[in-house]
Design brief:
The structure is a single chain. The chain is of the alpha/beta class. It folds into 2 domains: 148 residues, Transcription Regulator spoIIAA, CATH 3.30.750; 67 residues. Helix content is 58%, strand content 17%. It is built from 7 helices and 6 strands. A hairpin with a 3-residue loop joins strand 1 and strand 2. It is globular.
């Protein structure tokens, strides 16, 4: 299915409880809304009563997406009461950051996992479905690992290195953009207080870096040496 000029979505059903979606191109708010509606229709038709897992193939997606479209995706996924897990694979660095922050700052009714590739994603989904007890243990371990990874990332942003390489700077800037958007979103929703405290702390970092950038523009000096 095509949703707009650039964004396309295709869906595979794997067995009776796995849906695999392939996304291509950047999603606009309008295309994101239509795509999520289409996914919901498929899920309601083929998985009307049972639990299921969704695998997201992001190999064809780049980070050139709308933050509004990202909010729509988060909002719609929160409505998935029967989904056991969302497993993402193929996400490049910027998109992986987006997924990590979403799962850390929002309360989803299911687990969010990140796999290296399709093979690992399918293995995870199969293990969760084949053995519910093992699946629960697997989800707990995976969730804890991602939680620690995201906490370390936030800690690094809280104490930024004085020497940021040209390769790292875009990742830092993208992280700050996501944090600012999450802060605005969570301020509106007034949820997850522990993470709001984290965002308030990180907001100070953002203001500090913005001030450094302003001084750099005014004086032509390297902002990282200020």
């Amino acid at each position: 299915m095509s949703f707009g000029e650039l964004y396309r979505l295709s869906i595979d059903l794997l067995g009776e409880q796995i849906i695999l979606t392939h996304s291509q191109g950047p999603a606009t708010p309008r295309s994101a809304q239509y795509a999520m509606r289409f996914m919901t229709e498929i899920i309601d038709e083929f998985f009307p009563d049972q639990h299921y897992i969704q695998i997201f193939d992001y190999c064809g997606v780049n980070a050139n997406y709308s933050l509004t479209a990202r909010r729509i995706l988060i909002r719609e996924l929160k409505k998935r009461k029967r989904m056991l897990a969302a497993i993402f694979y193929g996400a490049e660095t910027m998109l992986r950051l987006s997924i990590e922050f979403a799962r850390f700052f929002h309360r989803f009714p299911f687990s969010i996992l990140i796999a290296r590739d399709y093979s690992e994603a399918l293995k995870l989904a199969s293990e969760i479905l084949d053995n519910q007890k093992q699946g629960t243990q697997l989800l707990a371990a995976r969730n804890q690992a991602l939680e620690q990874q995201t906490c370390q990332l936030l800690k690094n942003l809280d104490h930024p290195s004085p020497d940021i390489s040209p390769d790292t700077e875009p990742i830092v800037q993208h992280s700050q953009t996501l944090i600012e958007d999450e802060f605005d979103s969570l301020e509106q929703l007034k949820e997850h207080r522990r993470n709001l405290e984290t965002l308030l702390r990180l907001e100070k970092i953002i203001r500090s870096r913005n001030e450094k950038a302003r001084l750099f523009q005014n004086h032509g000096r390297n902002p990282e040496t200020l």
